[in-house]
Amino acid sequence: MNSLHTPSPALPTVPPLRPQALALQWNRQPLPPLQAVQALEFRTGETGLLEVEQGRVWVTCDGLLEDYFLDAGQRLSFAGPVRLRVSAEGGRPARLSWARHRNSDVSGRSAAADVPAPGASIRLQAA
After folding, report:
1. In contact, 105 and 68? CB cutoff 8 Å
2. Residue 97 in contact with residue 26, Cβ under 8 Å?
3. If residue 14 lies in a helix (H) or strand (E), which one and from where to where?
4. Using CB atoms within 10 A of its CB, is residue 123 exposed (0-12), middle (13-18) or buried (19+)?
5. How far apart are CA 30 and CA 77, in angstroms?
6. Which residues sit opposite 56 in a β-bridge?
7. Whole-model pTM?
8. Dist. CA 67–CA 76, nearest whole Å
9. What are the tens digits of pLDDT across the range 14-70?
């Protein structure tokens, strides 16, 4: 049997996607000491991002048993729907920056499936 090997045409190449910085509107929230707890709510399909700019912040999430204590420079992210309660920890003032990101990428496909469920969605990072 005589067969000739015909090379397959090369597959088209697609340039890799470059990571894009999120265009977020950051909100600054001062947290004076001994002030009442403040609530932050995020809807289904949103990712909430927190970053402590100054001081120490207490964060708790409705429905979870854990509390979080974040120091300046630490970040927290989570998937909605969720209600957070935040306040300055101790007798010192704190300042919190937070933003909300709608979970969809540039192609319009929902990225909600890429974000963990609310009970397991909390990620803590040190800056």
Report:
1. no
2. yes
3. none
4. middle
5. 19
6. 71
7. 0.65
8. 12
9. 455 455 556 788 999 999 998 889 999 999 999 999 999 999 999 999 988 889 999
Dihedral sign for Cα atoms in the order 14, 16, 22, 23 = negative
Residue 24: other Cβ atoms inside 10 A: 13
Distance, in Å, from the CA atom of 123 to the CA atom of 127, rounded to the nearest integer, reads: 13
Give the torsion sign (CA, 108, 110, 27, 56). negative
Q: DSSP readout, 27-76? A: EEEEE-TTPPPEEEEE-TTEEEEEEEEESEEEEEETT-S-EEEEETTEEE
Q: Is the dihedral of CA 102, 105, 108, 109 positive or negative?
A: negative
CA distances from 96 to 29, 72, 112 (A): 5, 9, 25
Strands 46-54 and 74-79: antiparallel
